[in-house]
Amino acid sequence: MPHVLIVDDDPDTREALVSIIAEDGLTTATAGDLREARIQLVRQTPDVVFTDLQLPDGSGVDLFEDLDPRSGVEIVVITGHATVESAVSALKMGASDYLVKPINMQRVRAVLDRLPRAGDLKAQIGTLRGELRRMGRFGLMLGSSPAMQSVYDQVSRVAPTAASVLLVGESGTGKEVAAQTIHELSLRRKHAFLAVNCGAISPNLIESEMFGHERGSFTGADRQHKGYFERANGGTIFLDEITEMPAELQVKFLRVLETGMFMRVGTTKEIETDVRVIAATNRDPEQAVLEGKLRLDLYHRLNVFPISLPPLRERGNDVWLLAEAFLAELNERHGTSKQFPPATKEMLLSYPWPGNVRELKNYVQRAYIMAGADSNTTAAVPLQISLSKPSTGTAVTIPFGTSLAAADRQLILATLEQCGGVKTRAAEILGISLKTLYNRLVEYSDEAGKPQAGEGDAAGEPGEAGEPAAGK
């Protein structure tokens, strides 16, 4: 059903407009100032906005900045102080009409009659998105498989709302890209999107990074620092590896979600923030709760709308679609026109991709580089992956009575050795964050008094976005 937002500080004007618009079969929401109007915009995108020009906290034209021109929302400006200049200015900024108080209700009906109805507009938008989805594109995400179509359905439903989202999936499945797509399809798209890897920040600094700190609040705090929640006000925060957040910070984080208030480290002054939280984990969240890695109350608060991202091995021909997209991106960036050799497609589709989309992207980049600078037209891009599987007999034997710490160490070092020293792959197999793996290796090195075997990454292994560089 079509929806109209009425923004006016005069209650009588609001009531009159609600009455006449309801008769025309439209739903309405009202606001008395810009602040209330922006809250209503976040709750539901209107098809039409009637806004007074002069409001207690600013001008009605300020709402133009909160609406994406591509959304098709019609704006009608209302004023009791009409001037030619104000009318021309409003129309230039994108207003579809300009009404003068006292409002002629017949004029309002005429405006509504000629405005595109929500059903028509949404049908057009739906058709466009449907075409893009069939081509394998939805927002920033790529893929046309049934598994991804299901993800697109869920994203399209939750993006326009203010609901918290919990993204669950293996490492490398594209959880941050999904979070960015949700942000870009929401009314917060003009504000900041900040991605935070909870496992890559030192436990001693994570509270300061999240909420900020005052000058002198701790050693080294030589200036005031604004945290993620303050910098992302009005926008979206993506918290990756949420189960790696320290338990004591999870309590404070839960309070921010419930009240919208937080305090910088070193002060008792509360700061209000309006952010949408999208969290992600590569663990089973319910198992993480049982293990004490995630508070149950925080899990319920984040799990308002869970979305599971499928591993690449379950996405069929999306592997080839993604590989071609990654190669096209490299060609455009470097002004080349490299192509995959004919046999590559079958090989890529037969590989299980344990590192998911991230591993595929790294492979395409390696293959592109190995082709050489001279092969920029139709030269073959060599395939650099191995399709051989590790021996099924490879195992770690842990005698009965071995301490958990010793078993943990033995399993980590054995897995790292099996992965040829590549920490990123070892962390994925073990189901822990890269930061946790680094910390364990440092502990083992300190205990032995010398570097452990396999402590460096394999030569030539490319770094991955969002992972700590320390220790590499």
TrEMBL record:
Residues 3-116 form the Response regulatory domain. The modification 4-aspartylphosphate is found at residue 52. The keyword DNA-binding applies. GO terms for molecular function: ATP binding; sequence-specific DNA binding. Residues 141-369 form the Sigma-54 factor interaction domain. Residues 453-472 have a biased composition (Low complexity). The keyword Calcium does not apply. Signal peptide: none annotated. Coiled coil: none annotated. Keywords: ATP-binding, DNA-binding, Nucleotide-binding, Phosphoprotein, Transcription, Transcription regulation. This is Sigma-54-dependent Fis family transcriptional regulator. It comes from Trinickia symbiotica. The lineage of its organism: Bacteria, Pseudomonadati, Pseudomonadota, Betaproteobacteria, Burkholderiales.
